[in-house]
Amino acid sequence: MKMLKFAPIIASIFSLGACSIAMSYANGDNEERQGANLVTLARILQLPLARGVSGIRTVSEELHRLHGKPAIKVPGGVAIEDGLILADGYRLNLVIEYEDAGVLSISVDEGRCFPLEEAARLTGARPTGAVGYPYAEGPDYDTRSAVKNGVEVALGRFAPAEKCLTEIRLVDVAKAGKFAEENGIDLPVKAPKEVRP
């Protein structure tokens, strides 16, 4: 898994932003209780922007319930690395929660392509330019970002020929900013101004 081997590189996460994920149950309403059975890629993309940090917590909880097993420990957080099939048939290869940094990082399988343009349309995400990941550097990495209700939803694809969404980052902007400041992490110039501390 190309994302897992770079899990310790928290600084690269902030290229797209960061988010807070708590494992507690957010609202307890019936819709959210049943949400694990209704998890779709569109829901993952839209719920955090609609509900803010509680939307991110809901997405996290639903993914963990869908997985049904304990997540494994990785540097800085926990991971679901054996894949998840969502209600709409899309597959997530890897989900990593960087708890202290406030990042929920999701790798989307390209086997069934979810177009990056569709993800951008659903979220209102706009291009932010290339991001310097160790495994996806250079101007061809397409990154989009939407910020609303204290949350950033960052989207990306790895190569110029690709049209599929390959990566999602859900970001609690306040927690990410605090983590960056406390740890002396400089956010890249390309990070949207709304997510800079």
How would you characterize this protein structure?
By secondary structure, the chain is α+β, with helices and mostly antiparallel strands. The chain has one domain. The protein has helices spanning 10-13, 30-34, 41-51, 53-67, 116-123, 173-182, and strands spanning 72-74, 77-80, 84-85, 91-98, 103-108, 126-127, 142-148, 151-157, 167-172. Strands 1, 2, 3, 4, 5, 6, 7, 8 and 9 form a nine-stranded antiparallel beta sheet that branches. β3 and β4 form a beta hairpin. Residues 1-35 and 131-138 have low confidence and may be disordered.
Q: What's this, in brief?
A:
The chain has 197 residues and is α+β, with helices and mostly antiparallel strands.
Instruction: Spell the H/E element sequence.
Output: HHHHEEEEEHEEEEH
Low-confidence stretches: 1-35, 131-138
> What's the gyration radius in Å?
15 Å
Give the helix/strand class: alpha+beta
- Portion of residues in beta strands equals 15-25%
Give the overall pLDDT as a whole number: 76
Q: Report the span from N to C terminus.
A: 31 Å
Q: Which percent range fits the helix content?
A: 25-40%
Count the helices. How many?
6
Query: What would the principal axes of the Cα set say about the shape?
Result: globular
Record field, number of beta strands: 9
Biggest beta sheet attributes? 9 strands, antiparallel
Count of the domains:
1
